[in-house]
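Report of the visiting student (M.T.), summer placement. My assignment was to run the structure pipeline on a short list of targets and document each run. The first record concerns ATP-grasp domain-containing protein.
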Amino acid sequence: MPAVWRAGAPRTTRQEAGHTLGAREETGAPRLAVTAAARQEKEADGVKKVIVLGVDATGAKYVPRALRSAGYEPVFLADPDAFAGQAADRLRECACFPVDPDERAAVLRLLAEEPSITEDAVAITGLHGEKFPLIAEIAATYGLHGPDPVAVRLSSKGEVAALVPEFIPPTLCFTGVQAARLAVDPAACAPAPSGHVLKPAGQAVARGAARLRRGAGPVDVWNAVAATGLSRYAAHPWVLQADISGPLFSLEGYVCGGRTVFIDFARRGRVAWSEVSSLLPAERRLPRGAEERCKTAVVTLVERSGLGQGYFHCEFLFDDGRPYLIDADIGHLGRTAVVEQLALSHGLDPAGILAHVLLLGLPAVGVGPGPAYRPQGSGSSTLSYYYGIETGGRILSVTVPEGGRCLHTQVVPDGARVSPVGCGDAGRVGMLTGPASDVAREIGTVVVHTTDGPRRAAWVAPT
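After the run finished, the structure tokens were exported:
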């Protein structure tokens, strides 16, 4: 039987103590005959357990309180030892079943071998869109409420490309089999003066992504696919898009009752494949006329897909002032510290925001009024740095300024190894979030202690 974490005494790391919002205290499975009637009986009995598959370090700090405030008890398919500080503490206060969420077979096997996980549950959800297809499969298998089927479909970049081709970069959709047959020619994906980007259609955070030089051919496509290690999945869907090298913005908002609510734009800073910073709100930094085109892209996607409700974190790259939708991220908030930035900017509780995100993402469950967001772009200026170290290495600990005004979230536990900044999320050590002026001042004092000695945090401002 796999190990399971039960509620226990929380542990808070020294570097995180005192950094809080407001008051400075951070508060293959077999098919089962589970019927809708059985699910309704569970709900009538007052058993309201919600399974969570897919959570990041910031979300782990607030999801337990978010669900409990709405009357649900969270059960995580996650290993607290893979988290650090307050994220690990909050998870250890819940029932957690350690499993690698990226291993579909392992998740399904765990649920088949541990029927107690699902037998009293009423729903399954998560904060990572690429997990939605697996979440939906589990929901159907065990008779649970799950995400909106439209959000499940839109987790595929290929589906988004088919629905709103006029708003995305020039794109080719194909499978691993087609790449192996050398049937994918980048020349058919034009214009692309800066070359192309290859992405798994169902993955986020640059996992498996690669750049192809201008003039690349079918052999280059196959070599790039094979190099990711995903080529063994013959039917794995891929997209090849023209590389857009301009600034990156995200648009945060949600859909409810037929209405699309836009909350804020954020300006994202990047080093190669790594997002390393976020300034929110960032409407004033948008090129002239870009705001309406971004909003039109989102509204068009919502209308054509039939999305009924759910949050979105739509990312746009700009080329000569024109925005291109590169990731739709439907059904959840953005990863990293977006929820803390929204809470600080709008004077809200991050757990309250996440309660709305999670319940809005479960259409059959029902949700109350949304948070009282301020008018778009009018909130206070917030900044978050998702820092790493330039060379990568093994992390011993992190030191942040004593008595600082900012929120700190350590992403990886002490003893973990991180990649150099620029390689994707695997290069993140932690996040420092708060009022923009305070973060800009305090980030320079963050020290990452490694087996090779102390290192200054590596980051880039969202210019």
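The two ends are 50 Å apart (CA to CA). Residues 382-456 form one domain. I thank the supervising group for their guidance throughout the placement.
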